[in-house]
Fold this sequence. Notes:
It contains ten helices and twelve strands.
Amino acid sequence: MNGEISIALPKVGISEAQSVFNVIKSKKLAQGEKVKEFEEMFAKYMGVKHAIAVNNGTSALHCAYLACDIKEGDEVITTPFTFIATINMIKACGAKPVFIDIKDDFNIDENLIEKAITQKTKAIVPVHLFGKPCNMDKIIELANKYGLSIIEDCAQSCGSEYHGKKVGSIGNAGTFSFYATKNLVTGEGGMVTTNDDKIAEKIRMIRNHGMDNKGNFKMFGYNYRMTDISASIGIEQLKDLDYNIGMRKYTAETYNYFFDKIIDTPKEEKNTKHSYNNYSFTVKNRDLVLKNLQANGIGARVYYEHPFADLPNTTKIAKSIISIPLRPNLTTDDVNHIIFNVQETLSGNKK
């Protein structure tokens, strides 16, 4: 093995390069026909009426929050164990994030949500972290009971399923990131999915300076448009998405087989599909484990060491979680090297 086994290395190749070249040759680089084609393909894949492409996953969150009328003075229930964009865009709307502790699977504890609901609560934002779907039945029940919107943060879970539905098709809106570390990559890019015509119409205006399809400025907006260059990469990536998720799952199950007696391995729940964007688990002496794995050429790292609230399980997990490489372009030698070194490093870490 030469060099470090990176935790994230996009699987891109000739088909993506040819697609980008064709767009450049056409001289039509901005949002155009390729974006429309990508949106239509993604909507069909997701089983939704609308997919609206934007320039990144953070913009997708902002558009979805605004389109669901989250505004100053509102409260939004979510997890403190997530990437900062989930939280920042709530604050960008003038709303207050209300944090709920997480379960041992790293997702929001749906059984703690109801106690946090107040008259100011406007929405629930479940984050399907690392590719594992949240328990949406309870969240849907609460949203219906209290008249709340559900905005699914699917940045790390493109291709995951819950009870036969793709995550991102269950709530009022779903948001996706196509950053270089994700299951589907465009370099930078994002998408919002919805079955609600009014939400879709608002998002299309928000991403384009508040302008409708007739050129009239109807509301305050931003320049959140995706380029045809990014969309052309996304089209090729979408064609291979399920195959690549299958490769991720195969590697994850291989890890599970060898690690099952030493860690609590990440697994699929009944009636769900885990897309394995990430392979994370908790260990004793995390910092020492991290140092040892990195010293042996394994690009292990920590997500998320600094959560946004000091809650019991969140704090405990943040001090003990570690992630190892899991991507569709790992070689057999890479996987064998990772397995050997994790077993050696964790030999005294019996669960």
